[in-house]
């Protein structure tokens, strides 16, 4: 009899313990879900989480960021638009807690919208350090560009040499750099042409002078004005092709560079189903431009750039290509083959960066042996765009904004309708706990009847 009572007490204790554990198992996930928000992005390219570029830009922004979204609550086609925008901005607010966003319905507050200069429904004003930018298209790329524009202090004029058939940063031709120019403008740079035949000197406020593959000879006076700009510490981006230098040999001498004639032949390009006259950039020098840059770039019809030993400049080979290739000095139409007597064996440098201190400020120069790599026809090859933006950011003294651009979305959205969401909610919150509870009660009842 005593043994039976002891057995019953043990079963009662076990049942009570099981019931307590079951209640905790049911209640604890609900409590944790209420108090904490944890999510995993399982999309193919992490399209539902912020890219490293976005996180880096937000990290660099010191002080509060204010957003005012002028949007009506409902849209005939999209439904609750304000919720869509709120969900889009939430990851940014998590990454930057002092990013405050206010939603204003223009139909209910027309005076406020009019005073803010809002012209349409679905516009966002973002304010940072007293500067305001407008956003009308809500995606990661446009918002990051907006944040970068807000972070740039003062004017950032990028002056491009013109008058000699250069590649134009506002041009639409295949050889022009118009698409790249649009990217620079979106990031806060101001692009303006410069004709040194009609202008006595490169403007003093120039952030960066771009010389992009002239097709005609420069006059001695123009070259002298460029050299004077370099002498006083101006920053320079020089894009070269395999053609002659058109009077700019003194500039190469000033920079202590030897520009070997001929085109780099890269067999690795052939393995990637590209012409062997396209140099594949895969080996980069240690530099802020290429920090954490582990991507391929493509430099069509590149030429070799050799850095001469000197004490005037701190020089670095930025990109090497053609490890198993060579510099072809012969006629490309006559057949491509390595000739040890005339050709230069790879690997070869096809891009160089130089710096020095002038008037207590760092002067920065980049010489790229392919003007094609930023051209409209080739900008989409590899990560040419990222490399080019990083290059200009460093030259303009904005290396804090160097980052890989936000990726494009390649995943399809999974949208669940209200009935499906209701079924899932009932299944996890009601049905499954009842199953656990029923199982526990069944086990307890069977044990009690023994």
Automatic annotation (TrEMBL):
Keyword Manganese listed: no
Every DUF7088 domain range: 44-117
Swiss-Prot/TrEMBL keywords: Membrane, Transmembrane, Transmembrane helix
Transmembrane segments: 12-34, 423-445
Location of the ABC-type uncharacterised transport system domain: 158-385
Pfam families documented for this protein: ABC_transp_aux (PF09822), DUF7088 (PF23357)
The keyword Ubl conjugation belongs to this UniProt entry's keyword annotation: no
Entry protein name: ABC-type uncharacterized transport system involved in gliding motility, auxiliary component
Species name: Nitrosospira multiformis (strain ATCC 25196 / NCIMB 11849 / C 71)
């Amino acid at each position: 009899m005593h043994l039976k009572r002891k057995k019953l007490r043990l079963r009662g204790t076990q049942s009570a313990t099981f019931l307590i554990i079951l209640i905790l198992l049911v209640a604890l996930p609900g409590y944790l879900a209420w108090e904490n928000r944890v999510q995993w992005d399982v999309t193919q390219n992490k399209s539902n989480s912020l890219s490293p570029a976005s996180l880096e830009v937000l990290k660099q922004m010191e002080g509060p960021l204010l957003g005012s979204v002028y949007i009506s609550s409902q849209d005939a086609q999209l439904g609750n638009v304000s919720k869509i925008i709120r969900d889009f901005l939430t990851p940014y607010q998590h990454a930057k807690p002092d990013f405050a966003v206010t939603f204003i319905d223009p139909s209910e507050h027309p005076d406020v919208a009019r005073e803010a200069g809002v012209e349409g429904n679905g516009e966002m004003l973002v304010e940072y350090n007293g500067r305001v930018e407008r956003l009308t298209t809500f995606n990661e790329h446009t918002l990051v560009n907006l944040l970068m524009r807000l972070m740039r202090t003062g004017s950032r004029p990028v002056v491009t040499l013109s008058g000699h058939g250069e590649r134009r940063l506002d041009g639409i031709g295949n050889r022009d750099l118009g698409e790249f120019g649009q990217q620079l403008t979106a990031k806060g740079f101001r692009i303006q042409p410069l004709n040194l035949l009609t202008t006595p000197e490169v403007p003093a406020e120039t952030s960066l002078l771009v010389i992009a593959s002239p097709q005609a000879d420069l006059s001695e006076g123009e070259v002298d004005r460029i050299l004077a700009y370099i002498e006083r510490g101006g920053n320079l981006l020089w894009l070269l092709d395999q053609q002659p230098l058109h009077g700019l040999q003194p500039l190469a001498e000033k920079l202590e560079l030897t520009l070997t004639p001929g085109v780099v032949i890269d067999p690795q390009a052939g393995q990637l189903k590209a012409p062997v006259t396209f140099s594949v950039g895969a080996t980069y020098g240690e530099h802020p431009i290429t920090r954490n840059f582990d991507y391929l770039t493509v430099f069509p019809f590149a030429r070799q750039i050799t850095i001469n030993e000197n004490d005037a400049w701190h020089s670095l080979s930025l990109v090497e290509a053609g490890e198993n290739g060579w510099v072809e000095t012969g006629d490309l139409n006559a057949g491509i083959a390595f000739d040890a007597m005339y050709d230069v064996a790879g690997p070869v440098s096809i891009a160089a960066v130089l710096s020095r201190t002038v008037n207590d400020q760092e002067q920065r120069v980049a010489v790229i042996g392919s003007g094609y790599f930023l051209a409209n026809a080739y900008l989409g090859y590899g990560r040419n765009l990222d490399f080019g933006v990083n290059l200009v950011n460093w030259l303009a003294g904005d290396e804090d904004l160097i980052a890989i651009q936000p990726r494009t979305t390649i995943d399809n959205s999974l949208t669940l309708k209200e009935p499906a969401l209701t079924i899932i909610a009932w299944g996890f919150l009601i049905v499954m706990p009842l199953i656990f509870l029923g199982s526990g009660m069944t086990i307890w009842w069977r044990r009690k009847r023994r």
